[in-house]
């Protein structure tokens, strides 16, 4: 990695960490979901095992699903709005006038997004292990690998959206709508199968929700297994590759014509 | 010698009409015109942000257009551009000197632009003048051969404006060339080696400030408030403008006109002065408007 890209990554990370929404997504959101779940169902609930998978606690599922959810939030919400903000203020144009290659900027964004996801995962894992104790068995490498795949898919989407010419407000509305649609239909924190009896229509939504597919993939990776949703995840990775090609053609540096 | 910037027959609907000029090495060229004259459109075309309808732009020997990367060695400073509000000036300077692979800003320019006190501050905490100074500093870290600046001092307080003027003067000696847009001909007279007078997207005249002033002939100028009914004094040309009425003629003719007008206005301390670039611009604009009306 060249010094140029290193400097850019450092600055991008600093800028992101100074943004309140990013701090909420990376640090606050996993704990907020855990707190909400505990308040609604009981503080002992996360430590309970759910019947379908003996030895696996609710918190194990939540931990894996939050890794996936944070990765998607960073990719779709953070990247989209961050790129739109940088275009609106003139940063992209200023960068484009330097000898830096376009790929260096994309690489810096990708590394910064990955760093945020890894930092969030590490913090939440450490905290939940401290509160509820470590799981009976888990596969940190597989978990990290799966989370990186999710990060790649989400980052590609975020870059495609952020690369479009739109105002920061439009970017925010679009990014938040996309994420909330995914989040609310993902059945987060509660096993998706649990919805079958309570609200079958909601279960149907979670079946087709990309975040649900990705989260299931991360959860099974956490347990050291391959999820049944792997074909869907493979499809999403291919879609992300296509999104990368589209981004290459459509990414708008100037923001005006 | 190949010019650093060559603009040939540049036209853009409702903004520019067959604009041609060039910037040579070591030259400060000011494009001067009132708001709406096409200055910003021109600089945005030069920066590759707008696509001209016709014409050709060559910067540092490379053709420029939208979507194309600007040649290395060109710095562009647009008046409405900044950096993310949460970024500190020092961080930006370090980043851009790394990206340009240079050792940062020469200390002389740092002093001139008074950047030292701004280093620890975020862009969102800077005043407009400080932001412009910081943006000029950032553009300079790449040791550019050609600098394009859009209205560097418009809307700034005198102190900030003067610092920026000093920095532009420094660029003349230390760098290749500077092309800047200005609304104020007085400032252009102080800064420019050559001036391009622009009005309604057309070039009215081009030359050194003294050449353009000489187009008025050997006259003096008397400026009156717009409410004074000047009439038609003998041997004096009258140019009514929005904020003042200008009288041009020999010193003697103007003194006579002032004496004649004094009883009507109750004001006797009129100052008669040699013409400036602003007078040249006003006169050329009036001639242009008159010609347009006649057409």
List the helices and strands and how they pair.
The complex is a heterodimer of chains A (257) and B (295).
Chain A: H1 3-17, H2 20-41, H3 58-89, H4 91-96, H5 102-132, H6 140-162, H7 168-184, H8 195-198, H9 200-208, H10 210-222, H11 230-250
Chain B: E1 5-12, E2 16-23, E3 28-32, H1 39-46, E4 54-59, E5 62-63, E6 74-77, H2 89-100, H3 107-113, H4 128-140, E7 146-150, H5 158-174, E8 177-182, H6 185-191, E9 194-199, E10 202-207, H7 209-214, E11 220-224, E12 237-240, E13 245-249, H8 251-265, E14 272-273, H9 277-294
Parallel strand pairs in B: 3-8, 3-9, 6-7, 7-8
Antiparallel strand pairs in B: 1-2, 1-4, 4-5, 9-10, 11-13, 11-14, 12-13
Helix pairs in contact in B: 2-4, 4-5
Summarize this, please?
Chain A is 75% helix and 0% strand. Chain A has 257 residues and is an all-alpha fold.
Helix content of chain B: 25-40%
Radius of gyration of chain A: 19 Å
Helical stretch count of chain A? Answer: 11
CATH architecture title of the largest domain in chain B:
3-Layer(aba) Sandwich
Low-confidence stretches of chain B: none
DSSP strand content of chain B: 15-25%
Determine Rg of chain B (CA atoms, Å): 22 Å
Number of individual domains of chain A: 1
Mean pLDDT of chain A: 89
Features:
A: 257 residues; globular; B: 295 residues; alpha/beta; Alpha-Beta Plaits; 6-stranded mixed β-sheet; 9 helices; 35% helix
Description:
The complex is a heterodimer of chains A (257) and B (295). With 257 residues, chain A is an all-alpha fold. Chain A is built from eleven helices and no strands. The longest helix of chain A has 32 residues, at 58-89. Chain B has 295 residues and is an alpha/beta fold. Chain B has two domains: 5-209, P-loop containing nucleotide triphosphate hydrolases (Rossmann fold), CATH 3.40.50; 217-274, Alpha-Beta Plaits. Helix content of chain B is 35%, strand content 24%. Chain B has nine helices and 14 strands. In chain B, the strands form three sheets. Chain B has a six-stranded mixed beta sheet with strand order 6-7-8-3-9-10, with helices on both faces. In chain B, strands 2-1-4-5 form a four-stranded antiparallel beta sheet, covered by helices on one side. A four-stranded antiparallel beta sheet of chain B has the order 12-13-11-14, sandwiched between helices. In chain B, helix 2 packs parallel to helix 4 and helix 4 runs parallel beside helix 5. In chain B, 46% of the residues are buried. Classes of the chains: A mainly alpha (257), B alpha/beta (295). The A-B interface holds A 3-4, 7-8, 11, 14-15, 18-19, 85-86, 89-91, 93-100, 254, 256-257 and B 44, 47-51, 66, 69-70, 72, 74-76, 78, 80-87, 91-92, 94-96, 98-101, 138, 142.
